[in-house]
From TrEMBL:
It is a single-pass membrane protein. It comes from Peterkaempfera bronchialis. It comes from the Bacteria. Keywords: Membrane, Transmembrane, Transmembrane helix. The keyword Transmembrane helix applies. This is Neutral zinc metallopeptidase. The chain crosses the membrane at residues 25-45.
Length: 289
């Protein structure tokens, strides 16, 4: 995965709350207790759904933008983790702005520990998540190391990009009203699973067009190279956080009736569907059993 060295990064699309206390996290349950929280929120569920609710979003210090001096160009994205994520966010926004009529940008918030959101208090333990209440993606960058060491993914730049792209898939769903229409349920054929698989598919659609979507400031794609090996990193990450694999790892058995995100094979299938077709209309997980 390579970025155009001369691309200009838009740091206004990212807020940096790392090191800013977000207060206490409300006690939450979930279908699998602590692991249930991880499964429920990894790659995007409203934090209210697992009880991270009720605290004001005004009790933390103001966020600061990622320093422009640190992340200015695609060359910075090729050498620094923070800047790479910023560049991925920029690329995602460029694509969805060109793809979706009426698209409104969504900021990504870097944080550590806990963070106040319009969906309640978020925690690093929850994994990355999207909050429809404030249209923001929340991300503790240490999750990417956990994705490799705790979940067994091979890791790599595009594994990280897939995670971010999935969260922006939820933003697209929110803009389209899909989130509002979906039931808050569980199970292999539930709306919750279909939402997550559709977000995987949308991530694949972006990946298909990532090297051809021009950046407005330069007229060239921000991402200049995406290899088959990169796509395989994304597929590997998708498999690592499938419900069946997580349940087997932490419970020793697979219980499809409590799935919220879909199996490893399903997640890989729908990301691949998006990537192969490049067409968001092919991401109709709600019309496919």
């Amino acid at each position: 995965m390579k970025f155009d060295d001369d691309a200009e990064l838009d740091n206004s699309q990212v807020e940096d709350r790392r090191g800013i206390s977000g207060g206490k996290v409300a006690a939450g349950g979930g279908v699998l207790g602590v692991i249930g929280l991880l499964v429920a929120l990894v790659l995007g569920v409203d934090a209210d759904d697992v009880g991270l609710s009720g605290d004001s979003v005004t009790d933390a210090a103001p966020a600061k933008a990622v320093e422009k001096s640190d992340c200015r160009t695609g060359a910075d994205a090729n050498t620094k983790d923070d800047c790479r994520i910023t560049a991925v966010v920029n690329s995602l926004q460029n694509f969805w702005d060109s793809e979706l009529d009426g698209y409104t940008p969504a900021k990504t918030v870097y944080f550590t520990g806990t963070v106040p959101t319009a969906c309640g208090k978020g925690s690093s333990d929850d994994g990355p998540f999207y909050c429809p209440g404030d249209n923001k993606v929340y991300l503790d960058l240490t999750f990417f190391e956990e994705l490799r060491t705790e979940y067994g993914a091979s890791g790599g730049p595009f594994a990280q990009s897939y995670v971010v792209a999935h969260e922006y898939g939820h933003h697209v769903q929110n803009l389209l009203g899909t989130m509002d229409e979906a039931d808050d349920d569980e199970g292999a054929d539930s709306d919750s699973v279909k939402l997550e698989l559709q977000a995987d598919c949308y991530a694949g659609v972006w990946a298909k067009h990532a090297t051809t979507t021009p950046q407005k400031s330069t007229g060239r794609p921000l991402i200049s190279k995406l290899s088959r090996a990169d796509i395989n990193e994304g597929l590997d990450a998708a498999a690592a956080i499938g419900d069946d694999r997580l349940q087997k790892q932490y419970e020793g058995k697979v219980t499809p009736e409590t799935w919220t995100h879909g199996s490893s094979a399903q997640r890989q299938k729908w990301f691949s569907t998006g990537y192969k077709t490049g067409d968001m209309d092919q991401c109709d997980t709600f019309g496919t059993r």
